[in-house]
Amino acid sequence: MRLAGLLLFGGRWTNYFMDPDQIAVTGLILVMFALFAWNKWRYDIVAVISLVALVALDAILGKTSRLVEDPKRVLEGFGHPAVVTVAAVLIISRALRNSGVVDQISRSVMPFTKNQLQHILSLSLVVMILSAFMNNVGALALMLPVALKTAVDRQRSPTILLLPMAFASILGGMMTMIGTPPNIIIANLRVELTRELPEKFIQESAFGLFDFFPVGGLVAVAGLLFIVLIGWRLIPGKAHKKPGMESLFQIDDYITEVSIPADCKWIGETVAEVENLVGEKMAIFGFIRKDNKVLPPNPDGIIQEGCRYVVKADPFELQGLIEEHGLHLSKEMRHRIDSLKGENTGFTEAIVTSGSPLVDRTRTYLRRRSGNTMTLMAVARQNKPIRKQLKEVAFRVGDVLLLHGKTPEMDDTIAELNLLPLAERELKVGTFSRIGLSLAIFAGAIGLSMTGFPMTIAFLGAVLVYILCGILPLRDIYREVEWPIIVLLGAMIPVSQAFQSTGCTELIAQKINGMTEALPAWSMISLVMIVTMCLSDVINNAATALIMAPISVGIAQTMGYLPDPFLMAVAVGASCAFLTPIGHQCNALILGPGGYRFGDYWRMGLPLEVMILGISVPLILYFFPLFPSA
């Protein structure tokens, strides 16, 4: 046992050895972190694996185990106030969208897009404010069509708009308790984590809706100013997509299959000659053999009748090339499109979001879910060449799909599959009565929670009123909930509780305090925030909050400080996922439409995180005292 303590913590093992329960839960969490970082399985699957492993380890260790208090109650995490509150906030976000509140705000932004800085500021500011009161991914998704429509109108690259908007949506989530899942988790864990502390450190209530604003609000404003004035300039110029023309989203890399008919003008030409002829309009990057195996094309290969190729082209360019050179789409795709011809058919571009069931699925699954009412024409995946036929492509978050089918059915299917349609949409201006009623219901729930009434119940009541008033159709209630997040939270809460009940958080806190006892409080708060930032860039931010919150409270207890400053450091750090496109769903959402590369994120994200660290620590110490008031 002492050896395990030495391996995990180093130093004087005689004071810090670990018992079997602590070894088990620490090992479980390390494996869980590795699985999160590996990203082989989605985060909710990893969380369920961890929950099952926790119960199994508890059974193996026998009656003396402290991992699980009662195995029969291990699923109570799914009824935790934090889990229910997250689900309620997601549903309320849908109700606000249905009422026309967001569309009304979007329309008011239009006059401020003439100047480039005003364009970036106005869109980012709206997204930031919306994200404070609704799901930030939903807020960003709603404003994407507005951003790209105005980019086309003003002949500006969408690259300079979308990354600032994504970062602004993340910053906006810091401003209130309901802005982001980590804040909801921290707010609700405040009471649980301090229950066993000395009386003067016990917190009897959760953080309120606006308790995060003194720090989160000022950090968000400072971050927004950085983004608008400096941040967008750090995106490499070569990454900027050219301003859109006819296509609102002008996706540059659609992948599709073409065949060579008898009357094609390319017959007798080499692949290299054809590529020189079409220039940048099309790239031939795959030759399909008779056994359907895709090979890199031979530049000197002669194009013959019946040959099939995998090509990349913008959809508008592709249509012109088909007409000009006499190309055909593959027989299978052509047959399916012919069967869908009619007055109400059309094309739609849609992006695969993190909550879509299409993630890691193929075209076969799409057909089954759509009932064969629409056809997948092409797939755009920025900077990731695909050397497969369409039927073999597994969809990823951020992929842009070109779909063709009957418009009414296709719209319903896109909504059911949780895809984000990337097409110009008419802004719906809700009637004043619906907008006013929707805001009144939301304000009423917030006001009720500020009187001491449980916020979870207040939000559930608001959802019920939205339904009774007809603002929220029954079909939208569960569609809007991000079930992977709900499963993650419900499964992770028992793991977090085991980490605390076994004494691991206290053990880690004691070791950290022993190594840093000469350091001032601000440096410890900075350390907690930096570690949380690093974890949130690799694993889900909600999982990060659930693990770091008890550790931070343990550090505060060991040093004799109130837990609130350290919990706030975790809340801010868990929301700082600015370095990679996989760190936050908002970052992944704009990867394709913005034409970004993986490395473009840290160029603006790293200085932003450094700035947030420098600003938030003094603010935390100012607004949240380290010692109880006399």
List the total number of helices.
Answer: 27
Radius of gyration: 27 Å
Largest sheet, in brief, is:
9 strands, antiparallel
Give me the oligomer status: single chain
The low-confidence parts are: 1-15, 245-253, 424-432
**How many E-type strands?**
9
- Global structural class: alpha+beta
Roughly how much helix do the residues carry, as a percent range?
55-70%
Can you give the mean pLDDT? 80
Strand content: 5-15%
Span from first to last CA?
43 Å
Shape: globular
Question: What's the structural blueprint in terms of helices and strands?
Answer:
Layout: H1 2-9, H2 13-16, H3 20-38, H4 43-61, H5 81-99, H6 101-109, H7 116-133, H8 136-153, H9 159-173, H10 181-194, H11 213-229, E1 254-259, H12 271-278, E2 282-288, E3 294-295, E4 308-313, H13 315-325, E5 328-329, H14 331-338, E6 345-352, H15 363-370, E7 374-380, E8 400-406, H16 407-416, E9 419-421, H17 432-450, H18 455-468, H19 474-477, H20 483-501, H21 504-516, H22 521-536, H23 541-559, H24 564-574, H25 585-589, H26 591-594, H27 600-623
Antiparallel strand pairs: 1-4, 1-5, 1-7, 2-3, 2-4, 6-8, 6-9, 7-8
Helix pairs in contact: 3-4, 4-20, 5-10, 5-17, 5-18, 5-20, 6-7, 7-8, 7-9, 7-11, 8-9, 9-11, 10-23, 10-24, 11-27, 17-18, 20-23, 21-23, 22-23, 22-24, 22-27, 23-24, 24-27
